[in-house]
Amino acid sequence: MRESDSTAYYYLPEPNPDVIDGADGKWYKEENGEGYVPEDVPKGGKGTYYASRRLQLIGKNAEKWTLNDLVAVSDIISKTADASDSLLQKVTMSMNYGIKWKMTLTDGNVATYRIIGINHDDLSGEAGKAGLTFEINNEAFGHSVQFFDSGDSQKGWSKSNIRKALNAGSLWELVPNEYKKVMRSCRKMTDSTGNHDGTVTSTIDKMFLLSESEVYGTDENKNGKDNDILDEGDQYEYYKNKNVGKCMNNRAYAGINLPSFPSEIGGDIWYSNSRYIRTIGSNSSTFGIDGKYGYTVTTTLVLYACPAFCL
């Protein structure tokens, strides 16, 4: 790391890749991650520069990471398997602390989002994993889309109204262009038949809802429920590290910070892409996640959407 101003340095030496992790000949400004060859480092004013993009991301406060920074972090992490890697450790800590970033939607509402997955989701059309998966954690995407039209609940996630809205319709149009350009298409596995017989099919999505197993896992503690959780994807690291499981009885997870919405719009429930085949009272079959496993509502209730996406 070097500080440059108009009097102290007229140039910075070229970072040596043999001794500096990730060096590519440029100096990276802490504030915005812009890279400069030594002779092009701005001479006017002061600034903090790092000898590689990786070091800039490690040195910068994670809460101040920009979208550009998050894309760079995701790219680097997708190539990182060493658990002792400093950037990977910083990302894991940021995820466990629930650090949030902000996305200003096209309608002026501000969505907050956090990391829930690290090297978790399969990329579509190419080998490898998306470095980071994020989940919206507030009500910004609203509750304007009914999951299905009446009587269509057997269609599953793949043909649902909410999937169409998130990937090409009204909810996708809320996403600012700078995010649309960098979101990665991922392959998601869901029980689109609604038979709950172990059969899952894949969809390719840029924005998606979490499945039951991606939140609660697939452990054997059924907590008195009438069926086990279908494997529709591995539990995301954020929820796994918080020990979230279907044995939970309430929303009091340590530090989980789940959304909470008005009671008339589902209260503690928001959309999932899993179709539950269990009945509680007169309500059967739902697509929804609650602070506790096993809650069901009718498919005609319009809930809030808290979509996820990958960079």
Radius of gyration computed on alpha carbons: 22 Å
Give average pLDDT, whole number.
Answer: 77
How many helices? 7
Give the termini distance in whole angstroms. Answer: 27 Å
Which word captures the global form?
elongated
**What oligomeric state do the depicted chains represent?**
single chain
Given helix and strand content, the structural type is alpha+beta
Largest sheet, order of strands side by side?
A: 5-6-7-13-10
What fraction, in percent, of the residue positions are helical?
A: 10-25%
Number of strands: 13
User: Uncertain spans, ≥5 residues at pLDDT below 50?
Assistant: 221-227, 249-256, 261-266, 277-287, 290-296
Task: Report what the structure shows.
- The structure is a single chain.
- This protein has about 300 residues and is of the alpha+beta class.
- It has a domain at about 1-60.
- Helices cover about 15% and strands about 15% of the residues.
- The chain contains seven helices and 13 strands.
- It has a five-stranded antiparallel β-sheet.
- β11 (about 280) and β12 form a beta hairpin.
- The longest helix is centred in the first third of the chain and has 12 residues, at about 85-95.
- Mean pLDDT is about 75; it is low at about 220-225, about 250-255, about 260-265, about 275-285 and about 290-295.
Compact summary:
By secondary structure, this protein is an alpha+beta fold. Helix content is 16%, strand content 16%.
Task: Provide keyphrases for this structure.
311 residues, alpha+beta, five-stranded antiparallel sheet, four-stranded antiparallel sheet, 7 helices, 16% helix
